[in-house]
Amino acid sequence: MRIELEKLAESSREELLNVIELLCAEIAQLRTEVEELKRKKARSATPFSKGKGKSNPKKPGRKKGDGKPVERRNSPEIKPADEVKRIAVVLGEDQKKQTVCPECGGSLKVIIEEPSNIDMPRQVKREITLFKVESLRCPECGCIVGRGRHPDLAIDQYGATAHRVGPRVKALGHLARIAFGVTQRKTPGLLKEISGIDLSQSALNQDALKHGGEDGLVGVLAEVIKEEVKRNARIHTDDTGWKIGGQRAQLMGFFSEENSYYQIRSKHGAREVSEVIDPETCKATINTDRFKTYDAQEFECIAMQKCLSHIQKNLRDQRERKKRRARSFCENLKALFKQSLELWHRYRKREIALADYLEQGRALDDELTYQLRARPMRDEDNARMRRELNKHHERGNLLRFLKDPSIEPTNNFAERMLRPAVIARKVSHCSKSYSGASAYAAFMSVVQTLKLRKVPSLLDELTALTTPLRIATK
Questions:
Q1: Per-residue model confidence as pLDDT tens digits over 30-46
Q2: Largest CA distance in the chain
Q3: Whole-angstrom distance, CA of residue 458 vs CA of residue 451
Q4: Is the pLDDT at 464 greater than 50, yes or no?
Q5: 20 DSSP assignment
Q6: Spatial distance between the Cα atoms of 21 and 467, rounded to a whole number of angstroms
Q7: Residue ranges in 283-405 assigned as alpha helix (H)
Q8: Do residues 254 and 267 lie in contact, with contact meaning Cβ atoms separated by under 8 Å?
Q9: Are 145 and 137 a contacting pair, CB within 8 Å?
């Protein structure tokens, strides 16, 4: 608002009051913006929210019409180790006297229902193994010449390290951090409350470095998962920020239907991506966002599907900054991509045949070619957006899913698989060393792969991977 001071002296009282009212409103708006800028400046480097919610958020709770059957909690499966209490709940004497239904007059019958309550015991039963070990010791110098052996007893388990915590407790600690988002500092307290076992944070760190390193079984299995991801026909990839010793790094995820592989590197360039997506041997279709690394010359020969959700968001943000005719370019593209997504969902719901899907897909592809045609544009932002999207369209990276409906048009699967790592980044200081970052990525790869494969028990599987090899008795 610009006010000419010379004209204020000639203004009437009502005009001056109007000017004061406008100024007060503008001051209030500026104060709000100043507070918002202060809040953003004080916000942590990895905030939970960007301060801008959705314009049409969905209501919480079960959604109607999604086609999923309504499921109820089943009665518990009673196992031999369970402590079962059986309590009979009978009708009162006044209730037994009622023989006729007050609503319809029908005869009443006694029906036995079997509801159940499931609860935890006050403390989990611990399995404690006490060894009595014979040893040959020299009484003169105290030297141990020989020591009895047992398959479950480590050779060096004596002295200060005579009492150890078993692999199942440590595996539960790793699961609490990797699968359920508990910080490593809080994990010992959680284990203490559940089982009554004291386990230090250092013990968890050392166990993670031992099994998640190059020589550990978890680290070896992570490399096997990496090779299986490479051989898959569909690979979804996404990345998020990370820190190693306070320095910026990148956590990258590569996912298929039954495998998930994570790696943490100081950079996210073509060399780091090529560790999994090798341009010379990769024959998969890659679902990714608009990150510049995947536009490098090395990956031009790889079939990709750019995430339409990311592109729609970019177009929406750019449209909000434009006025009048400059908005039409973004609006036309958004409408076209929306039609493409709706067509894909209709085919997935089996509402249209494959032939009709392909025919309508070709028409949308031709329309996109026309919208992205080379032409002079006054708005530089629109011109830059047109050049970039046209480059992807010429490679077939925008509407590839319209030619092959098995390809997903968005990168939502990778974002969901990356969500546990994003939460861990927000609530912790990430990794202190490169070896710790490597171990964390290995455990993440194994645990998330086990979840994708829907194993009966994550704890049993991870315990087997972190259990020391049994020592052969001589």
A1: 988 888 887 776 655 45
A2: 113
A3: 7
A4: yes
A5: H
A6: 74
A7: 308-320, 326-348, 354-371, 380-394
A8: no
A9: yes
Give the tokens for residue 354.
Answer: 């494959």
460: which 2 tokens?
């049993």
Residues 218 and 463 sit within 8 Å (Cβ to Cβ): no
Find where tokens 């006050």 sit. 122
Q: Cα(432)–Cα(76) distance, rounded to whole angstroms?
A: 43
The residue among 241, 208, 238 whose CA lies nearest residue 442 is 208
Indicate the DSSP class of residue 402: G
Which band of pLDDT confidence, cut at 50, 70 and 90, is reported for residue 102? confident
- The whole-angstrom separation of Cα 390 and Cα 329 is 13
Tokens of 109: 């019958």
Q: Which helix (H) or strand (E) holds 392?
A: helix 380-394
pLDDT digits (tens, 9 = 90+) for 309-338: 999 999 998 888 888 788 889 999 999 999
Domain ranges of the chain: 125-270+427-474, 308-410
Q: Do the Cβ atoms of 378 and 327 come closer than 8 Å? A: no
Whole-number CA gyration radius for the chain: 32
Helix axes 201-212, 458-466, angle to 10 degrees: 70
H-run or E-run covering 447: helix 434-452
Rounded Cα distance, 299 and 303, in Å? 9
Min mean pLDDT across 41-55, 68-82, 95-109, 259-273 is at 41-55
Q: Determine contact, residues 417/236, Cβ cutoff 8 Å.
A: yes
- Predicted TM-score (pTM) of the model is 0.76
Q: Please list, in sequence order, all residues whose beta carbon lies within 8 angstroms of the beta carbon of residue 236, skipping any fewer than 6 positions away.
A: 254, 255, 256, 286, 287, 288, 408, 411, 413, 414, 417
